[in-house]
Amino acid sequence: MQLESHFLRLRPRESHELRIESSILQITPAATLRWSRDVEDNSVAIATFKTPARQLAIESEIIIQQYNEAPLDFLVADYAMNYPFAYTPEDWIVLAPYTNFAEHTVRNELAEWLAPIWKPGDLFQTYSLLKNLSTYIHRTLSYQLREEPGVQTVTETLSYGTGSCRDFAHLFIEAARHFGFASRFVSGYLHAPPSAVNFGATHAWAEVYLPGAGWKGFDPTIGEIVGTDHIVVAVSRLPESVPPISGSFVGLPGASLDVGVWVSEL
User: Fold this and answer.
1) What is the pLDDT of residue 97?
2) Among 128, 154, 168, 245, whose Cα sits 20 to 30 Å from the Cα of 204?
């Protein structure tokens, strides 16, 4: 088969909370790599191939230093401490795309589903409302590992009562946007023992922009705020925009795919 260009989003996002100590990326057959930053400032390696191959193998080994040891150590701006609030006009210019629904027909459905945790007129501490939303998804829906590509719609997740981590992240994002929060999808890695939630695969969660604190992560799959066990690789307004690896090939049909992710403490 002839391999077309592949786009790799495997390198964690460095920040004051995370530092990459070493990174090794091995690709077979040999590829030419060109590194770039996409519109969300994610690190993307573009691999191009000259040699036909029967198999493509990509192995990324990264050692990081994690500094986000106190995820609750943040201060929300005074005007945003309680919900509802409005973003400042300056922030709104940048954040507006992250408040737009990916599914424009779910407003009424979300309002009904969210009624047990918030009704118009209720006054909540902003962080508490978002934490309650994450916990609500975790407690009322059942996690199910899904190998199928794509993300379930909000309607599908609520009607099935089940979903994968990416489905729960998408539901959280649409619910947060229903409340008026700027929210985005996160693809990354989770440090946890193998389980039904962590099955040797990438993980997904959501981030919400809180004035004064910045983008803060919430993981509805486990119902917790994001901390040292979460490693952000890529963020996006839409879930389908940041697959870990995307690409194509020209050849006979019938190819199979195997994926493994292992996160260990050194």
Assistant:
1) 96
2) 128
